[in-house]
Amino acid sequence: MAIDSEKKECDERWIGMLVRRQIDGSLPALLSVINRFLFVFDPEEYAQGVLKL
């Protein structure tokens, strides 16, 4: 996610993508893939909490 750490803003394209995925029903699958990726490749980040609806 493109985040400007000084401004505390995120790229609005990500918000649109998340809304579209929720509308078409694929957001749970997307969150599952991201969580699995974090579990395998970045356990420290995964330990901070999983993404869920």
Question: How would you sum up this structure, described in words?
Answer:
With 53 residues, the protein is mainly α. The chain is built from three helices and two strands. The radius of gyration is 13 Å and the shape is flat. The mean pLDDT is 83. A two-stranded antiparallel ribbon has the order 1-2. The protein has a domain at 26-53.
DSSP summary: helix tally: 3
**Total count of strands:** 2
Mean pLDDT: 83
Strand content: 5-15%
Structure classification: mainly alpha
Regions with little confidence, pLDDT below 50 for 5+ residues: none
Helical residues, percent = 55-70%
Sheet of most strands: 2 strands, antiparallel
The gyration radius over C-alpha positions equals 13 Å
Strands of the largest sheet, in order across it?
1-2
Oligomer: single chain
Secondary-structure element string: EEHHH
How far apart are the termini? Answer: 17 Å
Shape: flat
Please render the helix and strand layout as text.
Layout: E1 3-4, E2 9-10, H1 12-24, H2 27-41, H3 43-47
Antiparallel strand pairs: 1-2
Task: Please summarize what this structure is.
This protein has 53 residues and is mostly helical. It has helices at 12-24, 27-41, 43-47; strands at residues 3-4, 9-10.
